UniProtKB/TrEMBL annotation:
It catalyses: Hydrolysis of terminal non-reducing beta-D-galactose residues in beta-D-galactosides. One of its GO terms (cellular component) is beta-galactosidase complex. Coiled coil: none annotated. Its EC number is 3.2.1.23. Residues 672-930 form the Beta galactosidase small chain/ domain. Belongs to the glycosyl hydrolase 2 family. GO terms for molecular function: beta-galactosidase activity; carbohydrate binding. It comes from Kribbella steppae. The keyword Secreted does not apply. This is Beta-galactosidase. One of its GO terms (biological process) is lactose catabolic process. Keywords: Glycosidase, Hydrolase. Transmembrane segments: none annotated.
Length: 932
């Protein structure tokens, strides 16, 4: 008889799979099946030989488990966001259904006699059947959920067992696994053989709550035993409830107590966190305290391993989050590897644990003749209900999980309500989230994605809306490419309305896969593997670059969510507010530094009294610093920094947790410049030149960022011709003691232009440029940028006084401090996976650009400028598809902006607010150029 593949298109959740249970740290003997397996990939189910009863693997390759076959030399990854890469006709899937066969022979340990032998898979994408010693054991689905099979009757202790696993890329499960990520298949989490003793528990449920100093503990187990918590002197029977004076668990103070369930058959070790999640008066609390989610959406991702993460990768994520002040994770859009959750318990992160479910490509409310969304289709019900049951059972003992989520982007349907009911039935202690329950019919938390700050404020202000449920943004601040901008606006809403409890940035990390294109290493995105249907670089929208280095968006988020607010109090002192949920400031030390034009002129400790959560204190400057303030210095800034006084489990002593800057001097008005007309300024076809400065001209274009491109803003700009303006010299000559060049910058065909007047005055050691720009005709309302760009011989080093050290735009400048910085031109670039405008430093006071031919110093006379320095043109940047396409030549391009439009987050989210747009209007800039 040929292998029956009907399970691939079967609506059932599986066959012969053991009931779900908690992920346990127990005494069961375990034989890990990680490492090499024999492997063979067939292009379709029909091509997969019917030999799994007794496969001859001599001609096969090998593959490492855990891993994805597309990242192991078999097939290729493919990326789609919403669309399914196959026709919608559930339960059918393409005939071209890559099918991987894994075979491994193990010896069952002799001392496993009497135990139940269980084969456990932590995650297999997307559907698989298991054969052992020639027998079909069963099959399972749910890529990011565990499956267990009982092998007891098929194997013998001391004897070999041949395990053959047939894995299919596509299955009916693919219809409910339409998450925005790479399609990657295979056994991507661990496989273990377990020996479960009949007298040992296989399922344990810890119920640990907290109120007013008292913890209440009850542990249910499927085999009765004794619960021991040595630190609390507790010893009691499973099923009994006890109380004790305890310290509570929270994300900021993740107090865990070690416990154990002792039974005749062996122990189960517990890590107990006492905490109570409650909702009252529209506010979600943990242990009575309002939670503010400074969260991120986390996909599992590594640039080489895809979703097959190592424990180190998971720890890296947790440490980076903790160091950033992030306090919450939504596990978008599937349960993560269980080890990640243990790390969240230990290091302290609130978790929304999301079920493995998304059906986005069906649309939210399909009406006939469209097919029902799977969440409305009764044929999918059992599988979906089983998915949430498997999620809750596996993860129920994690203190970090405070909310269950049914899935992402499925619209509404009966199946979701059934899932909700099951989650509540198993675990009434945690609220349930589902964002597409847009009218709050059954959810416990009202949730939205990408709502603008004003929309959030409306919900915050009106308890009549959405049953007065706590409100969160399960996704916001879409971190694709350059951005997200405007995060501060959200913080203000979250601070103002108790019900607005923060949100989760989309998303944690760019899913750029490391590969080689044309001999150069790149991070690949959709289309790079030859996919015909794909969503390009939408897969690169994280706060981290693929190698886990922080993007400027991450640095901005860190600053916006920092746990202390350090600002001028308006009376000459520093105001410090503690925004922690439970911590006071006794774990922090404060330092202060004063810099005059970026040079340190004083520093020291700042005595700050211990500040309780929610409290604000005003702290006087140390007297010595006040003296400096009065000394009539150049531009002088005081920086207060709060750092960890001692090392924690997640950071070294001295790690910065918050900072604030206060300007001490009074800015003085710029003096008018007088002098004579310089002799060496010439205006030619390509622009204005003098000394090393070549071809200075007006610049209005930026290489569109994702937030320009996706909402169509960039195309509207192109329609206005902004990407291809031409320059006409109207006149040049000496006038009123200056060399005056008048130019008109305008696009072909259109009837608008910018008339710029460039007045050059020779001054000691250089020239001063007074530039004024006046729009004429039917000009566009908004410009990407307005500034000048010129060329210099290749610049090696840039020093500047202004904002830094990282890029900063008008709506992403929270993380930028005023100071003096130095960087190479390469270091000034931000390596967005898809190249786009980057590297702008807003509000620069002066910059010194050093080339082999000398140093050019540019200084703002009055109005500050935005600084951008690159070794390629804007056109090069715009047409590159990966950073490796950009290679320096021997010219450096310097752009000094009067202003630039903000970056926003419109790639997926609200439009850029008017406030952050550069409106076309008369503008001016004065700069002093000197050379050394
Ligand atoms: C939103 C999805 O929930 C998320 O998974 C991701 O795809 C994001 O978009 C885009 O990066 S859904 C969107 C239609 C608001």
């Amino acid at each position: 008889m040929t292998h029956d593949h009907s399970y691939v298109e079967d609506f059932a959740p599986g066959a012969n799979v053991l009931p779900p249970r908690a992920w346990l740290d127990d005494d069961s003997a375990k034989l890990p099946l990680t490492g090499d397996w024999n492997f063979r990939l067939s292009p379709s189910v029909a091509d997969a030989p019917d030999d799994l009863k007794d496969p001859d693997t001599s001609g096969w390759g090998t593959i490492a488990v855990p891993g994805h076959w597309q990242l192991s030399g078999y097939g290729a990854p493919a990326y789609t966001n919403v669309v399914y890469p196959f026709p919608l006709e559930p339960p059918f899937v393409p005939t071209d259904n890559p099918t991987g066969d894994y075979v491994r022979t193990v010896t069952i340990p002799a001392d496993w006699a009497g135990a139940r032998v269980v084969l456990r898979f932590e995650g297999v994408d997307s559907r698989f059947a298991v054969h052992v010693n020639g027998e079909l054991v069963g099959w399972s689905a749910g890529s990011r959920l565990p499956s267990e099979f009982d092998l007891t009757d098929l194997v013998a202790p001391g004897k070999e067992a041949r395990i053959a696993v047939r894995v299919h890329q596509w299955s009916v499960g693919s219809y409910v696994e339409d998450q925005d990520m790479w399609w990657l298949s295979g056994i991507f989490r661990e496989v273990n053989l377990l020996a479960l003793k009949p007298s040992a528990p296989t399922d344990v449920f810890v119920h640990a709550s907290y109120a007013d100093g008292t913890g209440t503990l009850k542990v249910d187990a499927d085999v009765a035993g004794t619960v021991v918590v040595p630190e609390l002197d507790l010893e009691f029977a499973t099923g009994d409830e006890v109380t004790a004076a305890v310290e509570p668990w929270s994300a900021e103070s993740p107090r865990l107590y070690d416990g154990v369930v002792r039974t005749e058959g062996g122990d189960v070790r517990l890590r107990i966190g006492f905490r109570t999640v409650a909702i009252a008066d529209g506010v979600l609390t943990v242990n009575g305290n309002r939670v503010l989610f400074n969260g991120v959406n986390r996909h599992e991702f590594h640039p080489d391993r895809g979703r097959a993460l190592t424990e180190q990768d998971m720890l890296d994520d947790v440490l980076l989050m903790k160091q950033a002040g992030i306090n919450a994770v939504r596990t978008s859009h599937y349960p993560p590897h269980p080890h990640f959750l243990s790390l969240c318990d230990e290091y302290g992160l609130y978790v929304i644990d999301e079920c493995d479910l998304e059906t986005h490509g069906f649309g939210y409310e399909p009406e006939p003749p469209k097919l029902p969304n799977p969440v409305m289709d009764p044929r999918f019900r059992d599988d979906l209900v089983e998915r949430i049951r498997r999620t809750v059972h596996r993860d129920k003992n994690h203190a970090s999980i405070i909310i269950w989520s049914l899935g992402n982007e499925c619209g509404m349907g009966e199946n979701l309500k059934a899932m909700y009911d099951v989650a509540k039935e198993i675990d009434p202690s945690r609220p349930v989230h589902y964002e597409r329950d847009t009218e709050a019919e059954f959810v416990d938390i009202y949730s939205r994605m990408y709502t603008d700050p004003a929309g959030c404020a409306e919900i915050g202000a009106d308890p009549e809306l959405y049953r007065n449920l706590p409100f969160i943004l399960c996704e916001y601040g879409h971190a694709m490419g350059n951005g997200p901008g405007g995060l501060l606006d959200y913080r203000e809403v979250f601070d103002k309305y108790p019900r607005c409890q923060g949100g989760f940035i989309w998303e944690w990390i760019d899913h750029g896969l490391r590969t080689t294109i044309d001999g150069r290493e790149v991070y690949a995105y959709g289309g790079d593997f030859g996919e015909t249907i794909h969503d390009g670089n939408f897969v690169c929208d994280g706060l981290l670059f693929p190698d886990r280095t922080p993007s400027p968006g991450m640095l901005e988020y860190i600053k916006v969510i920092e746990p202390l607010r350090i600002v001028a109090d308006g009376n000459g002192a520093v105001s410090i507010t503690n925004r922690y949920e439970v911590l006071d400031t006794s774990h922090l030390r404060f330092t202060v530094r004063v810099e005059a034009e970026g040079e340190v002129v004083g520093d020291g400790g700042l005595p700050v009294p211990v500040i309780a959560p929610g409290e604000t204190v005003s702290v006087e400057f140390p007297p010595a610093l006040v003296k400096l303030r009065d000394a009539g210095r150049p531009e002088t800034w005081l920086t207060v920094t709060a750092e960890l006084a001692e090392a924690t489990s997640w950071a070294e002593a001295g790690h910065r947790v918050a900072w604030g800057q206060i300007r001490l001097d009074e800015p003085a008005a710029a003096e008018p410049v007088t002098g004579s007309a310089p002799t060496d300024v010439t205006a030619g076809v390509d622009g204005i030149s003098f000394g090393d400065v070549r071809n200075a001209r007006l610049d209005v274009w930026r290489a569109p960022i994702d937030n320009d491109a996706n909402p169509g803003v960039a195309n509207a700009w192109r329609q206005e011709g902004l990407h291809r303006v031409q320059h006409r010299i109207v006149s040049q000559g000496e006038r009123d003691g200056a060399w005056e060049v008048v130019a008109r910058t305008a696009p072909p065909q259109l009837q608008w232009g910018l008339v710029s007047t460039w007045r050059w005055t020779a001054v000691d050691g250089g020239v001063v440029l007074d530039l004024s720009v006046v729009p004429d005709g039917l000009f566009p309302e908004v410009l990407p940028r307005l500034g000048i760009t010129f060329e210099l011989p290749k610049v090696e080093q840039v020093e500047w006084f202004g904002t830094g050290p990282n890029e900063a735009y008008v709506d992403t400048r929270e993380a930028a401090a005023v100071g003096r910085y130095s960087a190479t031109v390469a270091e000034l670039q931000t390596p967005y996976v898809r190249p786009q405008e980057n590297g702008h430093r807003i509000d620069t006071r002066w910059a010194a650009l050093t080339a082999s031919t000398g140093t050019l110093r540019v200084e703002a006379v009055g109005t500050l400028f935005g600084l951008t320095v690159r070794d390629w043109t804007t056109h090069d940047l715009e047409t590159a598809s990966h950073t490796a396409d950009l290679t320096p030549g021997d010219t450096t391009y310097v752009t000094l902006d009067i202003a630039q439009t903000g970056v926003g987050t419109a790639a997926c989210g609200p439009k850029l607010p008017d406030r952050d747009k550069l409106k076309t209007a008369p503008a001016s800039l004065s700069l002093r150029f000197t050379t050394a």
